[in-house]
Amino acid sequence: MVGMHGVRDGLQVLGSDGGMIGRVDSIEENRLRLHSTAAPAGHYYIPAQWIERVDEHVHLNVTAATARERWEAAGDGPVSPGRNAGGTTGDRAGGHRNTFAWIVGAIFILVILVMTVRSCGYAVDESTNTERPLPSADSDATGTGATNGQ
């Protein structure tokens, strides 16, 4: 990290891959405010930690796509490196995919739990709300446990 020495208003900001991100709109204590016509909000903040070097451009140590995923729209609180405006790492839809995975996993675990309980060999007598052993294949149908042929 070079810091913000040499950064001035109007300089182009480029990702580590050379992709154009925007222009410096203003310089703040630990971040840059950028103007980007390619994004809907127009103004965004990026942290000073992303600055790799400054010459006729501001070069970042993250790619342009990564910077766009992680920058914060102007008016939000300070940005932290590696986090986007939603507070999650990576792309913005990742949180929704995680929620879906958790729901699917929870349903799967519940199904396994129900199958396990049902196959444990006991039944609940609903009239007395007590458990009793299920009749086995070699016992009589009355559930008394007497085996066939005895």
TrEMBL record:
Compositionally skewed regions (Polar residues) per UniProt: 139-150
InterPro entries noted in UniProt: DUF2171
Keywords: Membrane, Transmembrane, Transmembrane helix
Chain segments carrying region Disordered: 72-92, 126-150
Keyword Membrane: yes
Superkingdom of origin organism: Bacteria
Pfam family, one: DUF2171
Membrane-crossing residue ranges in chain numbering: 100-124
The keyword Membrane is assigned to this record: yes
This protein's name: DUF2171 domain-containing protein
Species for this entry: Allosphingosinicella flava
